[in-house]
Amino acid sequence: MDEEARAQVVASLPGEVTWNEMPMPEGDWHTGPRTYVWNVLRRYWAQQSRRAYVSSALPIYYPEEPRFAPDLLVVLDAEQRTRDKWVCSAEAHGLDWVMEVHAGGDRKTAAEANVQRYARLGIPEYFILDGRHCTLECYRLATPDARVYTRLEPQRGRYVSNVLGLEFQAEGERLQLWTSATPLLTYKERVVQLEAELQCREGLERRLKELEAELARLKKSQG
């Protein structure tokens, strides 16, 4: 098959999956955490010199495998552009990191079953987030050739992703991502932070003007 014919085959692959191929969504317990992690990862990788493609619920095609659509995925050294599917043979790269989010039921069962499937496909890291209870299960291939995951243990309360170079901490009802000692923020959280810093600065500037005026009055009264 020549390149043109191969491109036509890739283009003909559906850019969506059916309800029979994926667990049903689970409302805010699923959508909220998934959207949060997606936003944080997109913002983080947009600021890095190394490229990474971050997506959510994207149909994935591995050779001779049923297609699937993980909640979150990252592919390193890939362009962040709009896609309707990821075809490993066409992109010449499989997935590097996957997270599934569940709140119990069928989605939890599917997430647990994928521990074996994603390892067999050679996906280096697989994280499972319980959106209802905010708990994590994290897995990694010990070597590039391994096809069975090793379950990770938290270090000082955080799970380390060697693939992403980030740390994940499930604390209370909130999942927090870290790079070293710095918490990662979504775009919205960063805007709120900047607005607070701006208000603080404006308050300090007003206070400085008040002190300068008071100092001027004191000098005048002494003169």
Account of the 3D structure:
The chain is of the alpha+beta class and 223 residues long. It has helices at 3-12, 28-46, 88-91, 105-120, 187-222, and strands at residues 52-55, 60-61, 72-76, 86-87, 97-102, 125-130, 135-141, 149-151, 159-161, 166-171, 174-179, 182-183. It has 2 domains: 3-184, Alpha-Beta Complex (tt1808, chain A); 185-223. 38% of the residues lie in helices and 23% in strands.
Quick one: biggest sheet?
6 strands, mixed
Average residue-wise pLDDT: 90
For the biggest β-sheet, the strand order reads 1-3-5-6-7-8
Proportion of residues in extended strands: 15-25%
Portion in helices: 25-40%
In the predicted model, the low-confidence regions spanning at least 5 consecutive residues are none
Radius of gyration, taken over Cα atoms and rounded to an integer in Å: 24 Å
Query: What string, H for helix and E for strand, traces the elements in order?
Result: HHEEEEHEHEEEEEEEH
CATH topology of the largest domain: tt1808, chain A
| Top-tier CATH class of the largest domain | Alpha Beta
Strands, count: 12
Number of helices: 5
Overall spatial form? elongated
Number of domains: 2
Tell me the distance between the termini: 95 Å
- CATH architecture identity of the largest domain: Alpha-Beta Complex
Global structural class:
alpha+beta
Which keywords apply here?
223 residues, alpha+beta, 2 domains, six-stranded mixed β-sheet, four-stranded antiparallel β-sheet, 38% helix
Quick summary of this structure?
The protein is an alpha+beta fold. The chain is built from 5 helices and 12 strands. The strands form 3 sheets. A 6-stranded mixed β-sheet has the order 1-3-5-6-7-8, sandwiched between helices. Strands 9-10-11-12 form a 4-stranded antiparallel β-sheet, with helices on one face.
